[in-house]
Amino acid sequence: MIELDVSKELLGSLGKMDLHVKLSIDSQSFVALSGQSGSGKTTLLRILAGLESAQGRIVVDDEVWLDEKHAIPPQKRGIGFVFQDYALFPNMSVMENLLFVKKDTTLAKHLLEMTELLELAHRSVMSLSGGQKQRVSLCRAMMNRPKLLLMDEPLSALDPSMRTKLQHEILTLHKEFETTTIMVSHDPSEIYRLSNRVMVLSQGKVIQDGDAKDVLLRTQGSQKFAFEGELLDIVKVDVIYIAIVSIGQQIVEIVLDESEANALHVGSMVSVSTKAFAPIIQHLKR
Amino acid sequence: MDFSLIVPPLLLSFKTVGFSLILFIILGIPLSYLLSKESLPHKWLWETLVTIPLIFPPIAIGFLLLLLLGKKGWIGSYFYTFDIRFIFEFKGLVIAGFIAGLPLMVKPLQSAIEAFPKAITEAAYTSGKSKLQTFVWVILPCIKSSVIATLLIASARALGEVGITLMLGGNIVGKTDTISLAIYNAVFDGDYDLALVLCGVLIAISVVVFIGLHYFQKKQKLV
Lengths: 286, 223
What we know:
The complex is a heterodimer of chains A (286) and B (223).
Chain A: E1 2-12, E2 15-25, E3 30-35, H1 41-49, E4 55-60, E5 63-66, E6 79-82, H2 94-101, H3 105-114, H4 130-142, E7 148-152, H5 160-177, E8 180-184, H6 188-194, E9 197-202, E10 205-210, H7 212-216, E11 225-237, E12 240-247, E13 250-256, H8 258-263, E14 269-274
Parallel strand pairs in A: 3-8, 3-9, 6-7, 7-8
Antiparallel strand pairs in A: 1-2, 1-4, 4-5, 9-10, 11-12, 11-14, 12-13
Helix pairs in contact in A: 2-4
Chain B: H1 7-35, H2 43-55, H3 58-69, H4 76-80, H5 90-114, H6 118-126, H7 131-142, H8 144-159, H9 163-169, H10 179-188, H11 192-219
Helix pairs in contact in B: 1-5, 1-8, 1-10, 2-5, 3-9, 5-8, 5-9, 6-7, 8-11, 10-11
């Protein structure tokens, strides 16, 4: 169980901002931390790790990590931290990176086996691909059998197929070690697949807190489905108007009448939804 | 050619550089680490003190050190009670070489430590490693080439030291005349041939240092 009530003044891109977060997290849960950049997610993670100072209180399993009088250093917190840019020790091999944390060859071999890295154990980490590096970083973070695993956008630098593979591995590790995990992520599919609780941060405050489905589902009322996107253009064709909207990696066209076209502004964020018919879902061949 | 005029100053220089090198390693490396810390109190003062020998004339530094380390000096008088003397002694030569070479080592090494990726040191901290363990086992091995290159430059500077050495060592022939001073003495005595030979020896050493520097700077890649 993690009890947290911390505050810190931050200097963000929009000037001064107060990060104030109060929450409790159950043991063994997997929490996803989401929100726009500059909302304080990474800072919150770093405060938990002890890499950044803050006012307030952090108690983990009856052990006080932070209060008014003292803060225990990151070395003594028993955490695992996975950085966005891997942060492996470049002077060591894959195996040495793990053993540097703890001289436990059995655990190191087991972790490398789980992440299909055992064959690369003696390779220099500098020669690995991004996905392999992040797997090493994940294994390294587990070497201390941490009470709390913190991950700062661990998969954001990887391509989609490697992401899916790593999500699976993170989930396997989470199931086996039952480590309480907090992960910063922007990717809805990743959040849905991995977490059992999602918190959305904005301007240093938690604005949404619930399970992945409640937080991520963007439909309202009787809508069958709804997508958010950016309105790129409105084109007049004869008597109708066509709105061009960018949704995810795709561009879609939506027919508008004149009054709808007048009410919308190019460049703004819009919601595209439908009620009347059932959408068709098909397998994509690639 | 009388080798007895070449070999002893050369050996003395090597011995001086050798001891300076030991001081660079055991004092210079930790000093670079301390100066790389943003939270170091009076950081500007320490940085200025280390950098002074680069800017201030060596003869003047030598004179100030003479006052400081002399029998009646602030530091010298203390050591004198234990019968330890620095002036006109081999120890004086080592101190001269060390002080002259120190800024050439500490400043670049400090930059290399400061430029080391913060995330990697933090990864070591969150892995339970202390600051010292992180420095010794992660940072130093990663900036190995910088360490060797700066040691090489500092040692080369110690080898060529004249001003401070003259003041602290006294240029006593057969005792504190390093190879650079031996050149000065040879020219002073009108023995240009000897001076040329000694210069030749220094040129040979410099070439070796340059090749070494080139090798280590090429090898040095950013993490």
